[in-house]
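Worked problem 6 (solution included).
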Amino acid sequence: MGTVDSIWDFLGSYWWLVFPLSGIVGGWIRGAQVWDERRRKDKLEMYRLKHADAQAAQVDDEALTSEIERTLSAHDDTQRRWLEYELDAVKALEYPLMQDMREQVTVDFHRARRAAEDLRPDDVDELRVRRRLDRYRDAVREMQVRFDVAEREAKRRRASDFSPAERQALDRAKKLLALADDEGSSQAERQSAYRRAMKELEGIVVLPDAATDALEQRIAGLLGPVPRDVARDDDAAGGAGHRPGT
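Solution. The predicted structure is:
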């Protein structure tokens, strides 16, 4: 009882301390609440920053993938445009400059084309290295520009560099090649047309091997044994069929 009485005596004598002590205790509580709120906000900020970095990395990766795909597509598209002149014999005759390696614009295009091909890796994932992608992209752009320059010049000049007699021979060759590629024509007509076209082009234009190969594949089997009437026609024209470059 003595101890309890002493405590009550103390509280009775110093009751006024309750007010400042309650303020101190309240301050401690409010401080703890503020600290806890700050810690909660810090955790939320760290979470946001962590996921923001991940989202940014994902965006960068998607942008890189898109750039690689655009560059590859641009390369393929330019290759396709070039192959139209390589595989279409009639088109090659309409724009002979595209095959003429004496022309600087043609040489410049083929140099740029080879450079782009050399920088295109077999494994496209290698282009995820920024330095490699930049070099390849620049090479493809150079190839596009050089092709556009050569094509514009070829369309401007067409066959104007040839003499009137040579232009007439080119026109006849184009008609004959169209006949040789016509599935509605007879075997004899197609064989004769192809060989006569090659004869017309002798000493004027050398068609790309790819163009003549493609044409011969489309009329495969027709250039084998020659019917007698066709052979007589060819003999009368001055000889057998001619393959450019042989």
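Discussion: Residues 162-246 form one domain.
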